[in-house]
Automatic annotation (TrEMBL):
Presence of keyword rRNA-binding: no
Pfam families: Glyco_tran_WecG
NCBIfam families with a match to the protein in the record: wecG_tagA_cpsF
UniProt key word Transferase: yes
Domain of life: Bacteria
Keywords noted in UniProt: Glycosyltransferase, Transferase
Protein name: WecB/TagA/CpsF family glycosyltransferase
Transmembrane segments: none
């Protein structure tokens, strides 16, 4: 299987928000076709979801900014980012929830028979995720849970599997750090950090009900159901303040 090169991103507009440049994808399909094109070629590199929380973290810590910039495909997952991009570009930009992107990408892997290797989550969640995906026709050629001890073994296992698409579900920044190390050794593969997506896929964690999502209130739902996230949400208010005053 041939991999495509990052030059493909050149045609996609981007917006600088704080220290982070975010790709303005008009709809999720555009991003999916960038990752696996109509000829089934896989984008060699990584994708990362950008939300206000990550932008604020990048403003405070140059290491976070550098880590975000290493992923070639930075897409907007967060209404606070999308609204600012629409205003600046004066063109449609769609919010792409990472979890939905991952599920759609898995179906695209099924359509094009692109081999997938899953990394992350607890062993039982991973086993259920793998079984569910196989049932959907996704060619899952290997999987390792997020509590492995030997990273070298993981690397060898991925290499031997022949996988081209590697979702990593270990939470931030752990997953991004692992992706950064793995991609040096596997330069033809596509990587994406998917946080708690395997937990959502298997029903261990509930996503906000559809209406909350449609109203872009998923962040509020998560705050109400996990009040411990309040510190993380505090940054969102600071972001809004800066955005309103044009300081981002
Ligand atoms: N996890 C993992 N290895 C670890 C720590 C966490 O695989 O060492 C997994 C955990 O089982 C869960 C996911 O990472 O599936 C954490 O997702 P979380 O919702 O915290 O990530 P976020 O989307 O908030 O970044």
């Amino acid at each position: 299987m041939i991999s495509s090169t990052p030059e493909k991103t050149a045609s996609i507009a981007s917006v600088q928000i704080g220290p982070v440049k975010v790709g303005a994808f008009v709809h999720q399909q555009q991003l999916l076709e960038t990752i696996i094109d109509l000829n089934g070629r896989v984008f060699a590199g990584a994708a990362i979801a950008i939300n206000p929380e990550k932008i604020m973290a990048a403003r405070q810590d140059p290491q976070v900014a550098a880590m975000l910039s290493q992923a070639e495909l930075r897409y907007a997952d967060g209404i606070g980012v999308v609204l600012l991009m629409r205003k600046r570009l004066n063109q449609p930009v769609q919010r792409i929830p990472g979890c939905e992107l991952w599920q759609s990408l898995m179906l695209r892997c099924a359509d094009y028979q692109v081999p997938v290797y899953l990394v992350g989550a607890r062993a039982e969640v991973l086993a259920q995720t793998k079984a569910g995906l196989l049932q959907q026709g996704v060619p899952v050629v290997g999987a390792t849970d997020g509590y492995y001890e030997d990273e070298q073994q993981l690397l060898m296992d991925i290499r031997q599997s022949g996988a081209k698409v590697i979702p990593v579900a270990m939470g931030s920044p752990r997953q991004e750090q692992l992706i950064e190390r793995l991609r040096q050794q596997l330069p033809d593969c596509f990587f994406m950090g998917v946080g708690g997506s395997f937990d959502v896929f298997t029903g261990q964690v509930k996503r906000a009900p559809a209406l909350w999502c449609r109203l872009h209130l998923e962040w509020l739902y998560r705050l109400l159901s996990q009040p411990s996230r309040i510190g993380r949400q505090g940054r969102l208010l600071h972001y809004l303040w800066l955005a309103l005053w044009g300081r981002l």
